[in-house]
Structure formats: structure tokens, C-alpha cells
Description:
alpha+beta
Amino acid sequence: xxxxxxRRHRKECEAGRLEDFKSGQFExxxxxxxxxxxxxxASGSIAGKFKRQSTWETDFEAxxxxxxxxxxxxxxxxxxxxxxxxxxxxPIHHPAQTTVS
Length: 101
């Protein structure tokens, strides 16, 4: 199942749209449509879990690629377990201290 993409406008929208106003990809192609840099969000279900998530993209083409990656991974990006920080196994070597006389 494909995810639905829409642009969710923010309060500081350069085109003057209201906060949380949603516009789709096809509205962008209309005559007289003012462009803005508001982010594209994806909504839908992946592996039975419904979510609405920002793609962190301002272009619909790039947002489609991000959404396709999420679908291929079969999980939302915030559902992925975070990698454990690597521990240093070797002791830290400090250069020999020298005294100046």
C-alpha cells in the first residue's frame, strides 16, 4: 500500500498559507500557485501501524523516494532501534609527559 504525501504548511509559510493547511502534489502545478519551502509529510500504514511522519523534504520527488525507502524497510524511521554507541576496547594512549627545566 502506498503512503499519501501532502505538504503541511507552517506558520512562516512564504506563500502566506495558513498553519497546518495541507496541499497535494497536483495543486503545485496549478496556474498561479505560489511556491514555498514547507515540508512534505507522509501518512498511511506500514506493517499495520498508522502514522503521519515528516519526510524532511520540500520536493515531492525526493519525498516519494523517502517514502519508498520506508515501505521497502517495512518500518517507520522512528520505529528503528537506535544503534548502541560503540565502546572503546583499546586503552587510550597518552603521550609521555615531559617536564621543562
